[in-house]
Structure formats: C-alpha cells, structure tokens
Amino acid sequence: QVQLVESGGGLVQAGGSLRLSCAASGRIFMINAMGWYRQAPGKQRELVAIAISGGNINYADSVKGRFTISRDSAKNTVYLQMNSLKPEDTAVYYCNFHDYRYREDYWGQGTQVTVSS
C-alpha cells in the first residue's frame, strides 16, 4: 500500500501562481510514476503532468510552458509549480502514484485549485 498526502492549492487570481506538493509513503519501489490529474465540475479526470522514475516527464498540452512538475526522490515527493494560472485551470487536483511492479494506482485526497478572473 502507498499513502499520499497532498498540500497546496487554494484561491488565486488569473495570472497568479500556486505550488502543489504530494508526499508518498509506504510500499515504494524504484520503478514508479508520480503525477497530477485534475477534474473540473462536469468533466472527466484528466492528466496534467507526470514524472516517471528515470526522468521521463509528460505534460498535457494545455499546461505546457506554464506548469512544471518535479520530483524529490529522496523524499518520495512530487511537486507541481503552476504559473500563469487561468480560470480554466480551476479543478480538484489529485496526486497519483503508479506502481509498475504491482500495476497499481494510488490517489491522493484531492486539493481544490480555484482561479478567479
């Protein structure tokens, strides 16, 4: 089992910045991926950014150039720096941990990000 604890989020004006953090604990093997998804009201959950152990990183097209994902492997923590926020970034953001060995996904509790225009 893996436990995820998220922090960050909140209310910000358009053009502002926020930083999300997610710390993982428990059964963590070397080969894994940590990332962020978001879900806006009435919409499906979508990938925002993901960082795979070994260095591969992927972003949704809608956040490229504005969001940056990073990992601190020693702390099993992933961060999402969100700059130039737009109202359409408003959503509940969920941290995800994918265990490639056991092919399991774990989710954080979600944190609300609201961007006012």
What does this structure look like?
The protein has 117 residues and is mainly β. Helix content is 0%, strand content 58%. It contains no helices and eleven strands. The chain has strands spanning 2-7, 10-13, 18-26, 32-39, 46-52, 57-59, 67-72, 77-82, 91-99, 104-107, 111-116. The strands form two sheets. Strands 2, 4, 5, 6, 9, 10 and 11 form a seven-stranded mixed β-sheet that branches. A four-stranded antiparallel β-sheet has the order 1-3-8-7, with no helix packed on it. The radius of gyration is 14 Å and the shape is globular. The mean pLDDT is 95.
Q: Profile the largest sheet.
A: 7 strands, mixed
> What is the overall number of helices?
0
Molecular shape: globular
Mean pLDDT: 95
Question: Quick one: how many beta strands?
Answer: 11
Task: Summarize it.
By secondary structure, this protein is an all-beta fold. Helix content is 0%, strand content 58%. Strand 7 (67-72) and strand 8 (77-82) form a beta hairpin.
